[in-house]
Amino acid sequence: MRSFSLVLNTKLMVLICGCEHVVDMGKLASHFSHHPADKRPDTGERFKTLMEELRSLGVREGLPDLAPSVVPYTPIAGLPRYSIYGCSACPFNRIQRHRVARHCEDACEHKPCYVIDCDVQRPQQHQGYIRIIKPPVNPAVAPLVSAMVQFQVDQTRKLRVEQQDQRLVSPLLVRTGWHRHVAGHDPSVLIAASRYPDKDEFPALVKLVIDYFDRATNLISYTDTLVLRMLNTPEPQRTCVVFFSPSLFSRVLTPPI
Ligand SMILES: [Zn+2]
Ligand SMILES: [Zn+2]
Ligand SMILES: [Zn+2]
């Protein structure tokens, strides 16, 4: 079977082709004919032998029901898995979260619904992704994962409580920690430092700031997807990511000698 790059999933008794799709045994020859010429296995005598072998293994024509559905399937061994987003009320799935969000707002016929994370597989070329049951977390790392999740929940909750406290200046300060950075400095020095500088007071500063922004801009293509997502979130003040480092401002705050 390897010479045909086929795998037999013995649980569902279905064939999985090297092109990563489930193939109906009865349509194997026509499936192969759609492969690019260099990857097309020969369909002569060896193909006949293969079919006999498959029949003797108990493979039958036809496929199990693999239609997209809201209820997740047991994962099919031998097919790649993807993590994407889906609608909670219908089988609508997309790679981009905002497309699912738009579906849930406007198009979904099964409202109320919301965006969910789902693991999916695509068993058939001409059909959509099917949702699969997420693999259970490895018991060895489970305590670590739940501790990390709990930590994030705590942080978010803490931040929300702090944000509701009107005495705090802003969530931005909570994140940047600038208030801690400047604590202990003489307020008059700080006020003087925040004064708009004279035109030629800090000759290097303009270049420094421009260089800093250039560097930050150049880094965008290397920025982690997660960070970009946070920057694009509809609630940036909640997940505000800070590009400015206090070290830049410490240079500004250092009185000129
Ligand atoms: Zn194939
Ligand atoms: Zn929806
Ligand atoms: Zn929907």
Automatic annotation (TrEMBL):
It comes from the Eukaryota. It comes from Schizophyllum amplum. The keyword Signal applies. Keywords: Signal. Residues 1-19 form the signal peptide. This is C2H2-type domain-containing protein.
